[in-house]
Structures are given as C-alpha cells and as structure tokens.
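Researcher: Good morning. I'm working through a list of sequences from a screen, and I'd like to move beyond sequence-only analysis. For each chain I'm collecting a predicted structure so we can compare shapes side by side. This is the next one on the list. No need for commentary yet; just the structure.
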Amino acid sequence: MAANRPPLRDVTARLRWPLMLTWAGMIAERVLRAFWPVWSLVAVVAALLMLGVQDVIRIGSVWIAGGLACLALVALAIRGVARFRFPGRAAALARLDATLPGRPLAALADTQAVGAGDAGSQALWRVHQDRMAARAEAAQAVEPDLRLSRQDPFGLRYVALLALVVALLFGSVWRAGSVTEMMPGAGQGSALAQGPVWEGWVEPPAYTGLPTLYLADQKGTVRAPVGSEVTVRLYGEAGALSLNEAVSGPTGPDDGDDGSATEPEQSFEIVRDGALRIDGPGGRAWTVEATADAPPEIRVLSDEAEVAFDGQMRLPFEARDDYGVVSGTAVIELDLDAVERRHGLAVPPEPRDPLTLDLPMPLAGDRTEFSEALIENLSQHPWAHLPVVLRMQAEDAVGQTGLSRPVDMALPARRFFNPMAAAVIEQRRDLLWSRDNARRVAQVLRAVSYQPREGLFRSEKAYLRMRVIIRRLEAGIADDGLSTAERDEIAQALWDLGVLLEDGDVGDALERMRNAQERLSEAMRNGASEEEIARLMQDLRDATQDYLRQKMQQAQRDDPDGGDDQRSAENMMQMNQQDLQDMMDRIQELMNEGRFAEAQQALEEFQQMMENMQVTQGQGGEGQSPGQQAMEGLAETLRDQQGLSDDAFRDLQDQFDPGGQSGPSQGEPGQGDREGQPGQGGQGSRNGMQPGEGQGGDGQGRAGSLSDRQEALRRELQRQRQGLPGLGGEAGEAAREALERAERAMEGAEESLRDDDLPGAIDDQADAMEALREGMRNMGEAMAQQQTPGGQGEGEGPPGQAQADPLGREAGQGGRVGTQDDLLQGEDVYRRARDLLDEIRRRSGEGDRPDIELDYLERLLDRF
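Model: Good morning. Structure tokens for this chain:
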C-alpha cells in the first residue's frame, strides 16, 4: 500500500509566524552567546575614549593599549565565529514542537507503518493525525533564552555596560575624536581643518549670587556687575588669535599699540562699559554693559517709634540693596543748638563721642529688602531726653554705605514721675554734662535732703543713700576735682537712687497696686466712662507687673547665688503672673460686656489673691533625703565662702584707700549720714562687724578674724565631706575629688590670711568656690543617676516639689522631660542669636573641621 502523505506541510504553512519568530530567537541566542565578549570589549573601549582617557596618558601608552584592544577584538571575533552555528528550519521546528503536549509536529511527520491496508486502522490513524493537527494549531513562538550566566559567570558584560552608561552621562562623544589627532601626520591636518579655538567665562562677584556666564553661549550684549572677573583661554598656534578688550580700564592687558593681547590665558576685571573682541579665525565680539553696584538705602520709620515704660525704645527702619545689606549702624549726635541752655546745661558740655549702635540684621532670609527695629534702652545715657540727631547707615558687601535722612528727636529714655526721683535724675544729667557742675549738684542735693519733710523720701534707706552720695561728691571736689571714673561711679549711684525713689521696694509696689485696685473699683461703682475704666485697668496691669518684678528682685537679693530659693521664687512668679493675667483679662471682658457686678466680684477675688500671694521659700531639713540635705549644706558653705571673699576684697581695697574715702558701698551708709555729717559716715560702716564675725583674741584685728572664719569654714566643709551619703559612679567620685580640692584651697586661703597676703587669699578663695560649684554639680549628677523610675531616690524631693537637673534647671511639670524655664533671657536676646548664627556660618566655612561637624552645622543653617 502506498504511504499516506503526511499533513505536516499544511500545518507548518499555518504556523509560519510562530516558526519564524522561534527561528529568529534561536539566531539571537547563538549570536549573543558567541559574540558577547566582542561587544563588551567595544563598550569598554568606547567608554574610555568618551571619558577622555587618551588625553591624560602618554601617546605611546595610547598606541599600545589600542593595539592590544584590536588584537583582543580580532581574537574574540574569531572565537565567536568558530562557536557560532546557524540554526536550521528543522531545529526551529523541533524547539516549537517541544513546547506542545505530545509533540504533535513530530507526530504529523510520521507515516502509518502497520495496518495501512486496513480501513479501520486507517480511520484510526486519520483521527490521530487530526487530533495532533488540532494541538499544533495552538503553537506559540518560543521566547529565546538570552541569559549568559553560564558563559559570563563574573558579570563582565554588566561592567562594560555600566562603563558605557557613565561615559554617556559624564563624558562626551566628541572626545573620542581626539584620538585621531594622535595618528602620525594627523596633527597638522586636524589643526588646519579645525583652526584656532578659544573659550572664556565671566564670573560675577561671589556676594551677588549670580551664575557664571560662558562666553561661547553669549550673543551680542553681555551684562555683568562691576568687578566681574573675565577669563579667556586661547588655543592653537601662537598669535593666531588675540584678545582685544576695553572694559578693564587703563590697566588692562596691552601687548601692542592696537590694544590686543595674545597670551594663552588672560584674566581681568570689568570696571566699565566697553567692547570685548577675539580677533582671528572663529573669533567673536561682544558689547559689555557693566552694571554698577548701587549703594544701599535705609529709611527710619520715626512715626512708628515706641517707648516702653522703662525707657526701652523700639525704632523701626527699612533697608534695601540690590545684592543685600551686610551691616548697619545708628549714629546719635547731640543737637547742641536745640538744647535749652539753662540751669546745669548753661555751662559748655564736656566733649563726648557720638553714640553708635549696631542695627539688627535678619537672622535668615533675603537681605535685599527687609524691615527691622532697633531696640535699645538709653535711659542712663547722658543725653537722655535731650535733643539729638539720629542717622542710620547701611553697608553692603563692597563697602558702599547709604545714609538715612537725619531725624531730629529727643533721645527716648525712662521718665520719672516722683518729684524727688526726677530731681535726682536731673542732677545726674547735669553732672554728666560737665564736671564743672559738681559743686552745684552737691549743693542742690544737700539742700533738698536737709531736714526733709515726711514723705519726701520713701524710706530711710533712700535718705541715707542720698547722704552717702553727697559725701562722696564733696570729697571728690575737695580732692583736686572729680576724675572720670569717680564721676561715672557717682552718676551710677544717682541713677540707682532715682530708681529706688521712683519704684520703691516691694511694699511700695504693693501699695500702688492696692491704690490701682481701689481706683478701678470706685470707678466701676460710680459708673465711669469706658475710656476711664480702660485707663485704670491698664494702670492696674502695670502696677501688678511692677509688684511681681519687685518680688522677683527681692528673691534675687535674698539669694544672690541663684540657689533653690530663687528658682522656687522664679517658678512661683511665672505661675502667678499667668494666673493674674488670666484674671485681669476676665475682669476686662466682664467690664466690656457691662457686667459690672461680676467684674467687681472678680476684682475682689483678684485683690484677695494678691494679698495672700507669697514667694515660696525652700524648706530644709524635714522631709528631705540625706543627699538633698548635703546639697543644701554645701550651698550654705558656698554662700559663706562668697561672703568671706567679699570681706577680704574690701580689706584689700582699704589698703589702697586708707583714708576711707571709698566709704560704704552704694546702699550701705554709715551712721554719720543719719545726722547729715558727711565726714563721719565711712568709719562706722567700714569697721562694723558683720553678723557671724568675731574679733580675734590674738590682737590681729580684722585679718585675724578673717583667718579664723576661714578656718571654721574649712572645718565645716571637712565635716560635710566626711558625712556625704554614698555616691557611686564616676560622678560621685568626681564630687568627692572636687570637695577635697575645695578644702585644700580653703587651707591655702587660711594661711594667706594669717600672713596678710590678701591677694593670694582671694585667689585661693576663688579656687575653693569653683571647686565647690563643681562638686555640687557632680553630686547632683550622681544623685540623678541613683534615682530609679517611679521610686523615691535621693534626687527626689518632697512630693509635688519640682526637681532640678545637675545644671540647676527645673524639670518639666507633669512628668515631661525638659524645663519650664524661659531660656531666652538677657538684655539683648536678638543680638545674641545673631552672634550665634554668625559663628555657625564662620565655622561651617572652615574646611579642616570634621565632616560630621560640618554636616551638623549645615543642618543648623538650613533650619534657621
């Protein structure tokens, strides 16, 4: 029987595209596996050429590397050709058939070998082939396997690809052409074909913040600030290109009569408008417009000036500059022609330099245009309330200055409403005006203080201060006139006296607050106008603030070393101040709503609260841990040592002032002043014994007393050191060592006092106090380390009492970490902040600092 014709040809005709795609994939597989080293080597060589490696190594090395690369390329190509086998149609058909279940394509290629003459067998064979043909209809192109992990186990192809990508990103395709210039005889031909080349830049000054200009990209006119640096480089044969410029002034480059220059590299600054031209093949020309740096402008906003009750002025101003203001100053000069020349101002004034104040600059942001305010308190200046002329000056980065229009004004200062305080401040002004007024000032002060009527002076303390000042002033006049230092000391004493007469003490402040409360209550009962009630409410606010301030100052005077009592007072003042502010706001709100009965009741509650308010004093001993008792004992020892050092310093002053003219310090008058006898006030105060002083029984007088007190203090410290509670860790050991150093320093001070070596004793006492402070700090750290969470460690105090950290700061309330204290304190917070920011900028510019520190400083600058 003749064999049946297989139907494979019909099926493969229908599977033409899957078969062709499979075949193409097989070709790609075999080409990739055979020639991947070739294209990897080509990628590496191309990357090196685009990165310009041939320009930085010797020509001989380039030729050797090129020859080796060519030999390797030929060898790899031969290896690839030897390994490459072109796939046939049968191989593609077999791969496609392998992806089908039952290999239907191979089955379609088979012929029936048994039962060809049997009709039943033939029918069964045809059914079988039809089934295989149906399966073959579902054939899809086979994806090629392009993995090269077996052929390239080290991933060299990826290294070559990475090198090519880097070259494309950071190199240039045109650099590869430079290798042709290294061929023999190609240098002259390329130079002739390319011709001379040049490049140039215009770099503006750094303070402008403007970008650098590339001359090849500029057309026609180039605008640049004055002071910009121009750099031009000429390549090619010497003399083929030349630079001609007329922007750097008469000192610019000049190689010939035509003003041209042919040096390979030239630099100059733009100082004026002019032309810039490169002559020669491929040359260009530009017109340069030099932009002058305009001087800064500044304007004083005198209409918005404010003066606080304590004399602090706030004077706003505006400043602008095209590239930013660097600094500014305010200069205040006395307008002598406008001064009313009478009384103490009739005499010619002593020469005094103009008052110069630094203007605040923005801490961050743009300084091309900004508004700020000069905040100063000039109440103690000799020109207070006198006519002055104010001029503000702003300076930019190049040193140009801009002046504001002069502003005529009376120098803002504190006003004194108490008649006696105003008189004292006026005499102080006359004394600072000229020392020729000293005798007149002494006479006026003596006249107003002679047999004063009741109520003229707030207290006997103020009267005694007045008498001490008169005595010192008359003593200075009698002793060849006042020196500058004596004049300034007396002026400071007069200022303190004027403040005392004006503000008084806590009792005076409390009385003023009570009067303000009574006036406000009376006004509400009598149905006063809204304006009157608002004014009285503001008086009550001011009186309350004054009372709280006096309480704070009293706490500071009671504890000058800033111990626990002072911190407790500060916390109490902050708490009470907020509570009182809320109560006064509530009273104001009730009055605005017309609910005067409720406002009256709230005012009575406010008055009762103020009457009951007391500054919390520290409680020692009972309810405290041994560590806290030891800390309080050391604090007391430190205060005693400070007082002893002050006494030794006063004795040292007496050695240089045997006549006692220095007298008591301000606020410590002698008995002679009580009777109006200026010549007798110093001795009683100077020689009087302080509390706790004993007269030495050996006849050594005060020196012996000081040495005995120092010995007693040293023995007390020794007792305290031996009774310290157990403190472990490095902090406890450091505390014990610091206290030992303090004891040795006290022993040295004791020996110096017995030898009448007061300077040496003062030095040893200073060392003892410093060691005591260090010991207390370390002891606080050790106590904090021993404290357990949720327990009562030594660092804890009585329940409800805020604890201080080793630096003396109160811990946060409610279990919070941190402090509730206001850390932004001081006379000039903004100036301190500016100085700190300038220091951070300076340090960030020092490249020799560690990278971690520079990163930290940059983060600070980014944030602030």
